[in-house]
Amino acid sequence: MTLILFFTVLAIVALGASFVITLPAAGRVALWFLAVSLFCFGLVVGSSVVIDENEVGIVHRQFFGKPLPTGQIIARDGEMGPQAEILGPGWHFGYYPFTYQVRIDRVITVPSGQVGFVTARDGQPLPENEMYAPAWASAQDMLNPVIFLAKGGRRGPQTTILTPGTYRYNTALHEVTTIPALQVEAGTVAVIKSNSGLRWTPADGKGDLVNGVPLVPRDHIGVWAEPLTPGGYYLNSQAYVPTMVKTTQRTYTYQAANFSKPVAPAAQVARMAKNAPGAAASSGSDDWSVSVRSKDGFSFPVDVRVACAVEAKNAPYLVALLGNPDAVVQDEQEDEKLEVLEARIILPAVRAIFRNVAETMNALEFVNRRSEIEALATQRITTELARYRVTCDGVYVGNIHLDASLAGQQLLATQTDREVAVNQQKLYDQQRQAEVSRAQFVRAQEEAEQQRQLAAAEYKVKVEGENAKSQVARAKGEAESQVIIGEGRAKAYKLLVETLGRDQVAQLELLKLVVEGKVQITPQVMVSGSTGGGTMDALAGTILRQSVQPAPAAK
């Protein structure tokens, strides 16, 4: 506008000079031509718009046009107001200040990890009961104002988003804000509640109804039956609202407290009355999460731990049933904050099942059958949670606080006394059995010794009998041998006597005795006389003397 005024002033000055200054006709024509040229140049330069590469020009028509129809914001056919077409980088002419106003805006850049959420200020109204405009096949067509308006683009929030990059758009028609891209962490899935897409009806047969909420395919409005697994997604999280559901194992612990110190009976009774089944839970550290009553009327808390998990394929069902199962809410009965899944499904199931089991047993029976109760509770809770498509990994029973009340302590004392008496009786029985066994062992030892001695005696008798028989046989043999030897010798002597004579045989025998050393050579008998018989008498005396001498003692 300033340039037009400047060159207009110059043209007027040149034109005025042609009238004031006396010039030839040719000079005057030259001044007129200069004045017209300056004016035209001013009009051209003044109507130009320069758009940088990172800018966009938004044109507003101020005069010489029809007014916009009611309810229309962007001019489609040259009406006054914001024009649909935008000015890109470069020089643009013909936008006279007294007719047009060009606003220069910056292009928008969607950074990595973000998406561009687009809202249209003009276009066809949204269909009834629709919150978002139908998705476009191309985001560029959606941002092109001419195509957007010509193809019946809907005003309001758009389903189609802008992925990371730089975009030039008509800021009078579209508003773009950046929002974070959807990030699904490990150990979770994203269940999508779609607010845009096709309408599902039971006649389609494409989804299930859970409490009136449809589980539908991805191109339908409702809760998508297939969740998004861990990863990053460029998704319009306003049109497709994600609900994060944990798929890792969940552990819920319900544990009694403050049993480490003795409590007065009155306080115990008051505490148990406050925490009895059906009573409102107390606040603070005295809160028993699971309290049961046995068949014989004893009330006591039980420590319980439940491990469960939500499989990815079952997460949409829970979202349709509970909303956000991991949302923390204030539980009115417990007077504390709990997860929705725990408050509405886990804890009620655990309490009901343990109370149902306890009411079929006496208190001591409940204590003594802890492992059986754990197995039974696991089975029942698994079945109950399966109705809600929650997987139960185990139910674990910890301490059973039967001693929480004075009556329970007395009952446990009688049980202890009875067990002590039973154990003592068993000990006495074992000791008596040991004494009986020892006596039987001693008797067995004595009988074995007697049997050994009897066997030894019998064997000795047999041995002595056999020895006697052996001696008799030996003596008989020796006697027979002597007889045979004697008879042989007798026959030999008889033959010798018959051959040599009696005296020569005697002398021969004596010489044998001398040779064998049985007769001493030195005579011990005096020999006298002149006859030859003296020598024989001396030898005979010597032999007789040796025969009567005692045998030498054995060394």
What does this structure look like?
With 555 residues, this protein is of the alpha+beta class. The chain has four domains: 132 residues, no CATH class; 66 residues, no CATH class; 155 residues, Band 7 domain (Tetrahydropterin Synthase, Chain A); 110 residues. It contains twelve helices and 23 strands. The protein has a five-stranded mixed β-sheet, with helices on one face. Strands 18, 19, 20 and 23 form a four-stranded antiparallel β-sheet that branches. The protein has a three-stranded antiparallel β-sheet with strand order 3-2-5. A hairpin with a 2-residue loop joins strand 13 and strand 14. The longest helix is centred in the last third of the chain and has 94 residues. The protein is elongated. The chain starts with a helix and ends in a 7-residue tail after the last helix. 24% of the residues are buried. About 5% of the residues have low confidence.
Uncertain segments of ≥5 residues (pLDDT<50)? Answer: 259-285
Strand proportion, as a percent range, falls in 15-25%
- What would the average pLDDT be, to the nearest integer? 79
Class derived from helix and strand content: alpha+beta
Which CATH class of the largest domain applies here? Alpha Beta
Question: Cα distance, first to last residue?
Answer: 166 Å
Query: Which CATH architecture of the largest domain would you pick?
Result: 2-Layer Sandwich
Number of helices: 12
Shape: elongated
Fraction in helix: 40-55%
Instruction: Classify the oligomer.
Output: single chain
Number of strands: 23
- Count of separate structural domains: 4
Q: Main beta sheet, described?
A: 5 strands, mixed
The CATH topology of the largest domain is given as Tetrahydropterin Synthase, Chain A
